[in-house]
Amino acid sequence: MKMFFKVIPVILCFVSVNMSFAQNNENPSGFVVGGSAAKDGQVELFSSIGHFFLPPSGSVNEDTKIFNGLVPMFTELSRAPVIAHEPITRIQVGQTLQIHATVFGETNPSMSLEYRIGGETAFATIEMAKTQNNLWIAEIPAESVTSRGVEYGIKATDPTGRKDRSPASAAYGIRVEVPTGIARNIVQRAKQYDLVSLPIDANNRNLLSKLNIGSYHSDEVRIFDIYSDSPGDDRTPFTELKNGGNLAPGEAFFLILKDSLTLNTGSGTSVNTTKELTVKLNEHWTFVGNPYNFPFPLSNVHLDTSSVAGRIYAFNRAASSFAIMTADDFLEPFGGYVVYAGQPNRVLRFIPLGTEVVAPNASSATYSWSLNISAQCRTFSDLKNLAAVSKYAQNEKDEFDYHEPPVIGDYVSVYFPHNDWETSPGKYCFDVKSDNGAGRMWDLEVSSNVNDKITIKVSDFENVPANFDIYLLDENLKVKRDMRKWGAYSLAPGKAGAARHLKLVVGASLYVDNQLADFKQLPANFELDQNYPNPFNPSTTIRYALPQASQVTIKVFNLLGEEIVALASNEYREAGYHATVWDGRNKNGSLVASGLYIYHLQAGKFSLSKKMAFLK
């Protein structure tokens, strides 16, 4: 029988539409539109001017794919490219790295290799060359294979824009073997501690083996870790590791040496920079380090699921003290740090670069006003301690309050004592109180095991309302110091390292006057107290009283009447009690010889002298 077909001209828009049909079904199962990757079994309706053939009823067999009664002219789509690749996990430092990949599919894609040195933010891209059997090759140059590790990924793109990537996200990480290790020079001075870590996964993790000094001798080297159960409030929260300890990636130990030397990690392998590294923490304090041989951003270091900023402190070996770190800081290779967990079973997480991380809570830096308090004793210092108020803060322990880190060796420390707090009592370097609008008072303690003059400084006055007074109070000596005017206050350390107690009062005049009630009673006469301690070595406190404001000069003489040093030279002092500290040094900064000395006070027409004994 002869069959006739009707031919209907149809104009199609130049838009490519991919239609997926189900077998033996008159309706399409769905559409894949413009640029989306088609899957196996999909057909493409070409954008063109053409014809659809309308067959007579019953003339289409069951295998024909139909769309609304139309039989379109179509072609089967080629498959999208699929990369097959066996990741490389290790290579030796300085070697050229050849990357191989195979691509499946009916297309001829362009292939590229993306790679970067560990710690870099951007990837370099090079084209891969096709050899045979769909095998593609590219090389990472030898100068990019360093102790920092290597990251890479492979990308395929076909002519229609369909892509595949291996891995699908992030990158593969290659651990680089470093047979000769990584070295760092340690320039050591007497009794100076260093907090060290290894920027590599060493084959031998014993720290003593990295120093090349043979066996452990406490007069040449000492190594310390922190007690796992120490809250850090006692002054010796450390345990000595006479066997040299076991220093894993991300951990750190305290080290003190008799002489300068070179610390070499020995042979080892870089830590995989594409996988998260975790360090188990003690309940209170834990020494940690940078496990990578490049600066690692603190924003990618988390305490469990939150930012570690405010709970981690960097060790300053020159000042022999810790300083709190912010989210903008970096952990340095070989550097050492201390973290306060506050709870058991917590971990420190090193999150790979390029991973989206949660920003720290912005309210943590929202202060109504703040002041910084620092302490200095010889070359030792404690530089970052914050007294602040915030409308978000409580007067008990909260997220704004940071613990005072532990000390080791020779130190000076200023902190806010809070043994009265129900939650996490102890010493704090950040004490943020609620904002009552009028003013606040903080208790301070200062301690040092260095028997010398301590200088307390208050700074960042620009952060405080201009009409607020700022006073430092020494209740033991009945001394009040206007810190806006003087900025600093010197005192001798407590006996045998005992803490000295001070108060910081900040606020409007009425608030401050109420807090200074005990200091309002003026002395009836000029007074010059006997220095304390006496005899002394090397610092002593000289206290004097002024019943009226006066120009004051205080000088120290030897028994021959020769001037040794001027502690105050015609300086204005308000009526009240005052104190100055002599550190046993002359005007050239040299310690004086043992013996008797005379200190002389001149206040207006009043003058008085007394003797004191300096013993070396």
Could you characterize what this model shows?
This protein starts with 5 loop residues before the first strand and ends with a strand. Strand 30 and strand 31 form a beta hairpin. It folds into five domains: 6-76, no CATH class; 84-178, Immunoglobulins (Immunoglobulin-like); 183-350, no CATH class; 362-519, no CATH class; 527-614, Immunoglobulin-like (Sandwich). The protein contains two helices and 53 strands. Mean pLDDT is 84; it is low at 1-76. The strands form twelve sheets. Strands 35, 36, 37, 38, 39, 40, 41, 42, 43, 44, 45 and 46 form a twelve-stranded mixed sheet that branches. Strands 8, 10, 11, 14, 15, 16, 19 and 24 form an eight-stranded mixed sheet that branches. It has 616 residues and is mostly beta strands.
What is the strand content?
35-45%
Mean pLDDT: 84
Catalogue the unreliable spans. Answer: 1-76
Q: Bin the helical content.
A: under 10%
Oligomer designation: single chain
Write a brief caption for the model.
With 616 residues, the chain is mostly beta strands.
Protein traits:
616 residues, mainly beta, 5 domains, twelve-stranded mixed beta sheet, eight-stranded mixed beta sheet, 53 strands
Write the layout of secondary structure elements.
Elements: E1 6-11, E2 17-21, E3 28-33, E4 42-45, E5 49-54, E6 75-76, E7 82-84, E8 90-92, E9 97-104, E10 110-117, E11 124-127, E12 129-130, E13 135-140, E14 150-157, E15 163-166, E16 172-178, E17 183-186, E18 193-196, E19 201-202, E20 221-226, E21 238-240, E22 253-257, E23 261-264, E24 268-269, E25 277-280, E26 285-289, E27 296-297, E28 301-303, E29 306-307, E30 312-316, E31 321-324, E32 330-331, E33 336-340, E34 347-350, E35 369-377, E36 380-382, E37 386-390, E38 402-403, E39 412-418, E40 426-434, E41 439-448, E42 454-459, E43 469-474, E44 479-482, H1 483-486, E45 488-491, E46 500-507, H2 509-515, E47 527-528, E48 540-546, E49 550-558, E50 563-573, E51 576-582, E52 595-603, E53 606-614
Parallel strand pairs: 8-16, 37-40
Antiparallel strand pairs: 1-5, 2-3, 2-4, 4-6, 7-9, 9-13, 10-11, 10-14, 12-13, 14-15, 14-16, 16-24, 17-23, 18-22, 19-24, 20-21, 20-22, 25-34, 26-33, 27-32, 28-29, 28-34, 30-31, 30-33, 35-36, 35-37, 35-42, 38-40, 39-40, 39-41, 41-46, 42-45, 43-44, 43-46, 47-48, 48-51, 49-50, 49-52, 52-53
